[in-house]
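User: Predict the full complex structure for these chains.
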Amino acid sequence: EPEVTQTPSHQVTQMGQEVILRCVPISNHLYFYWYRQILGQKVEFLVSFYNNEISEKSEIFDDQFSVERPDGSNFTLKIRSTKLEDSAMYFCASRRLEDEQFFGPGTRLTVL
Amino acid sequence: GNSVTQMEGPVTLSEEAFLTINCTYTATGYPSLFWYVQYPGEGLQLLLKATKADDKGSNKGFEATYRKETTSFHLEKGSVQVSDSAVYFCAQRNSGYALNFGKGTSLLVTP
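Assistant: Here is the predicted structure of the two-chain assembly.
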């Protein structure tokens, strides 16, 4: 069964460094999402992406964040200069035309 | 604004016990509602959904009914199994298809 994959499973970085979180959505899906979950808090929507552009973003998704689909398979989230409060689990999701979003297993980002 | 509130966990039950996890929402209009489940080390998986008032979503013995009058979507299962141990997330879908989640409720089922 096709699934969304994410790499790495755990990323440790120093404050101020750039990180790129990678996702491979399901191959025939058209809509892509990033969510995050800070420990002990709820899963929060960051951004959605369709047809090579951002279709919706939350107030969390400020200028430090960017997304890209550099080729036909990867979907990336870049944090330009990480802060301590960026430490969280980041989930990628994708969907085709129907309602259901399929989620990846997440990348745990730890900013020291 | 739109929000989802679900009961705090962890919830610990014995096998074959009855499960209820409460979920209420606030929204303008009538959003689609979902329950997602996350097993250890895995991503969020859709468990069930309901797209309009009075709809009942069901899957794997779990069910939830979209109650407009109480703005609720409580998750129930008549007899839980050890394999149901996971974190359960209630969510609503906004107009742009982004999901708005609750905090999640951890369920531990003991033999």
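The mean pLDDT of chain A is 93.
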